[in-house]
Amino acid sequence: MPVPAAAADPGAAEGVLGELASRAAVLAAASGGSVLDAFALVPDPRDPRGVRHSLPSVLTLVTAALLSGQKLLEDVTAWIACAPPEVLRAAGARRNALGARVAPHPKTVTLLLGKLGAQALADGTGAWLAAREARPVTFPAAGPVLQPALACDGKEVRGAVRPDGTAPFLLSAAVHGAGTVIAEREIGAKTSEIPQIRVLLRELAGRFPLAGWVITADAMHAQRKLAELVCGELGAHYVLTVKDNQPGLRAALAALPWRTARRHVTGGSGHGRREKRTCQVLDAPGIAGLFPHARQAVRITRRTVRSFRVRKGRKGWEKKRKQVTETVYAITSMTAREAAPEHLAAYIRGHWHIENKVHWVRDVTFGEDASRVRAGSRPRVLATLRNLASGLLRQAGYTRIAAAIRKLRHDTSLLLHILRLKTSP
Question: Which residue in 82, 94, 203, 138 sits closest to 338, CA to CA?
Answer without folding.
Answer: 138
